[in-house]
From TrEMBL:
It comes from the Bacteria. Its main location: membrane. This is ABC transporter ATP-binding protein. It is found in: Cell membrane. Signal peptide: none annotated. GO terms for molecular function: ATP binding. InterPro entries: AAA+_ATPase, ABC_transporter-like_ATP-bd, ABC_transporter-like_CS, ABC_transporter_ATP-binding, P-loop_NTPase. It comes from Actinoallomurus spadix.
């Protein structure tokens, strides 16, 4: 069964086309990353999925129902980018209040354990660090034991250690057959935590596949050099190269094997100046994926 189905979904705000035309289905039980740069349309898509805002065109189904119906039945939990925590309440009070809103919630202690909040349960929720507050938001998102968990850039306020621990807990939740959809800017997060990665840029899907397929398409590194007015034909056939992006006199090769690409590049006989090899620059990769379309 599909957990999520978007059919021809578009959303405009005046003249801004936040989502162009989204057609996608997500299987129940999968963990899917929505990967894209700022302004790609991730939050808008999530907002529509949760019934917070209506599409300008097209249709969305969540477990076969409208988003509103699915949310009302307590089948969907969400952790959004902002969302103030009620002032003056302890962590335990906040979580147990939210839990009380659902027909079939998870036991309180289980929520606190899963969100790593047992030690903070007596603390005031509005006086926590950014990363701790994110754990409370995660707890409120899973409180109703939702079949679909939606997370919009959940680790934005977290340091490296908190991120690692957060994703371990998310995977634990997902392991029980639940569906998870999360938005992120980071390819590593998508790679490590999702079975499927949907890359969106400028309101459209530009790539969709397993993390391995996406990494092969965007490359794990970038080889940049000044090509001047020399011909660019054949650069895309160099070993490892998935995409070529030439802007002005600069060429960027997105590659899965920068060493092999550089060796082969010198063997072409091109005059290569200002060579620079970097780890994958997603922003560049997104741009070239968007250009390719
Ligand atoms: N309420 C709104 N009114 C007008 N424009 C909006 C509104 N919400 C979003 N937009 C615009 O729609 C586009 C998509 O924004 P959205 O927030 O969905 O992107 P995003 O991928 O979530 O970005 P980020 O990673 O920065 O959160 C952007 O151009 C944004 O400025």
């Amino acid at each position: 069964m599909n957990a999520i189905a978007f059919t021809g979904v578009a959303k405009s705000y005046g003249s801004v086309r936040a989502v162009e035309e989204l057609d996608l289905t997500i299987d129940a039980g999968s963990t899917v990353a929505l990967l894209g740069p700022n302004g790609a349309g991730k939050s808008t898509s999530i907002g529509m999925l949760l019934g917070l805002t209506r599409p300008s065109a097209g249709e969305i189904r969540v477990f076969g129902d409208t988003p509103d119906a699915a949310v009302k039945q307590g089948r969907v939990g969400a952790m959004l980018q902002d969302g103030a925590l009620v002032p003056g309440m302890t962590v335990r009070e906040v979580v147990s209040f939210v839990r009380g809103l659902y027909p079939d919630p998870m036991p309180l202690e289980e929520i606190l354990t899963l969100a790593n909040l047992t030690d903070l349960a007596g603390r005031r929720a509005d006086r926590l660090s950014g990363g701790q507050a994110q754990r409370v938001r995660f707890a409120t998102a899973i409180a109703g034991a939702p079949r679909l968990l939606v997370l919009d850039e959940p680790t934005a306020a977290m340091d490296v250690e908190s991120r690692r621990s957060f994703w371990a807990r998310m995977r634990e939740y997902a392991a029980s057959g639940r569906t998870v959809l999360f938005a992120t800017h980071y390819l590593e997060e998508a790679d490590e935590n999702a079975d499927r990665v949907i890359v969106i840029a400028r309101g459209r899907v530009v790539a969709d596949g397993t993390p391995q397929e996406i990494k092969a398409a965007v490359g794990t590194g970038t080889v940049r050099f000044t090509i001047g007015d020399q011909p660019t034909a054949g650069l895309d056939a160099l070993p490892g190269v998935g995409a070529v992006d030439v802007r002005g006199s600069t060429a960027r090769l997105h590659t899965t094997d920068p060493d092999a690409t550089v060796r082969a590049l010198y063997a072409t006989g091109l005059r290569v100046a200002d060579l620079e090899v970097k780890g994958a620059d997603l922003e560049d990769a997104f741009l070239s994926l968007t250009h390719d379309r």
